[in-house]
Amino acid sequence: MIPPIANNFVAGETPRSALSHVEDINQQGVAGILNLLGEHYEDPENAREDTQEYIELAEMISSRDAVGCISVKPSQLGIDIGADVFEENLGRIVDAADCRVWVDMEDYTTTDTTLDAYEKYTRQTDGNMGLCVQANLKRTGEDLERLADLPGKVRLVKGAYDEPPEVAHKDKSTVDAVYKDLLEYAFREFDGGIGVGSHDPEMISHARELHDEYGTPYEVQMLMGVRESAQRELAAQDIPVYQYIPYGSKWLSYFYRRVRERKENVAFAARAVLTS
């Protein structure tokens, strides 16, 4: 059972609890992106099991008319086992899902394989997919040039992996500047829409300015449990907002990672413990 404090960041352990959370935030004008927790599998059976749950989850989203979609991790679908395993499992999900299928981006060693699989399937679905790209990677500008010619959406995030300096920008101010530049390129060159994956008010404001200039549709994507009042405020301004919603039995490591990442999350957790 997930303790109350972790429930702020994780929507339970079952698809049913996760969908109930989606339906709750739908009432506030916020859509959901559901992610089953799990990553870096070495056993193909684990990857097959999560693949099947994603297929069933997509069917549940459609049957309950929830405003939401799904997001999968390559290492959860077997990319560490083999590119063919990952591609096959991703293909099964894409074939079965009526909702958009987002593909998360993990560490830099998996970027090429992830891009290749995404390109294959987003063409087959005429763009009913989305891909996450990370501004801290030095290669991302070239990757966006490739993605601009494909149907589908792109979610731009700053990047959370501790990558080596040979491949990634390490200074926060540099990453912020690069994020703005990449965001402008995406608004200028993409037709399918942009996912602004950031909690940073400066980046969200910049996206709004770019939308006014270029007219490109966009949505703001934030994590469950982080700046949720801002999510509701943006939705009330008719800005499409999606909340990234993790769920599943592997919640503990994810919860601690969220708490460690940001000082305000530590303070939030401390307050919750003291008042529970």
Structural write-up:
With 276 residues, the protein is of the alpha/beta class. The protein has one domain: Alpha-Beta Barrel (TIM Barrel). It has ten helices and eight strands. The protein has an eight-stranded parallel beta barrel with strand order 1-2-3-4-5-6-7-8, surrounded by eight helices. Helix 6 links the parallel strand 5 and strand 6. The C terminus is likely disordered. It holds the Pfam family Pro_dh. Its cofactor is FAD. Keywords: FAD, Flavoprotein, Nucleotide-binding, Oxidoreductase, Proline metabolism. It comes from Halovenus salina. One of its GO terms (molecular function) is nucleotide binding.
